[in-house]
Design goal:
Mean pLDDT: 94
Low-confidence stretches: none
Number of strands: 9
Largest sheet: 7 strands, mixed
Shape: globular
Radius of gyration: 16 Å
Structural class: alpha/beta
Strand order of the largest sheet: 5-4-3-6-7-9-8
Strand content: 25-35%
Order of helices and strands: HEEHEHEHEEHEHEE
Length: 196
């Protein structure tokens, strides 16, 4: 059988990796972002999230769920939403959360915050921003994140380092503040706080 046969390419890709001191196993498939392992940007973001056990969290654009799974494990007394506009990603995120022993989560199909209840507020929202979404789409995400954060809530994003100045300007405009949390070789983790 050819390695490019549809049957073989539809098989799950399975890998185990250490995230925040825990061995976690993920099932993915071709067509989902970074299916063979945790990409450098996601890992940098996960490593620099400040989380408390009581935090209510949201993984925006969750893909197959690594950020959300870690948020839910650390925020074990809170509730974590894993949302994505790709129904395959949501199915894999839900299955990965369950297979890694997480029960305090909701995985849902949502274009940004469109399906998230308006009254649901979060302590932490995090996203590995899609590189090609465009500035207008970023502003929509940032404003919706602001509306869904509690006072004192934190919004974390990781991007390639090139647009970091745009992120700084946009965060300052939307949140009134910006912090560069960590700059890696190719990626930057940025954070803003809802102060009002």
């Amino acid at each position: 059988m050819s390695r490019y046969s549809p049957e073989r390419l539809r098989d799950d890709i399975v890998f185990t990796t250490n995230l925040r001191g825990r061995e976690l196993t993920f099932h993915t498939r071709w067509g989902l972002f970074s299916p063979r392992g945790i990409d450098d940007g996601t890992r940098l973001l996960i490593d620099h999230l400040e989380l408390k056990p009581s935090d209510h969290c949201l993984d925006l654009g969750c893909g197959y769920g690594p950020i959300g799974v870690v948020m839910a494990r650390i925020g074990a007394d809170g509730l974590t939403y894993l949302v994505d506009k790709d129904f395959v990603a949501v199915e894999y995120a839900e299955a990965n959360a369950k297979r890694n022993g997480v029960s305090n989560f909701r995985a849902m199909l949502s274009d940004g915050f469109s399906a998230v209840p308006a009254e649901q507020k979060f302590d932490v929202v995090a996203s590995n921003l899609p590189a090609k979404a465009g500035n207008e789409a970023y502003y929509v995400m940032f404003r919706e994140a602001y509306e869904h954060l509690r006072k004192g809530g934190r919004f974390y994003v990781v991007t390639l380092s090139a647009p970091r100045r745009f992120i700084e300007r946009a965060f300052t405009e939307v949140f009134g503040n910006y912090k560069k949390v960590k700059q890696g070789r190719a990626h930057t983790v940025s954070m803003a706080v809802k102060e009002g």
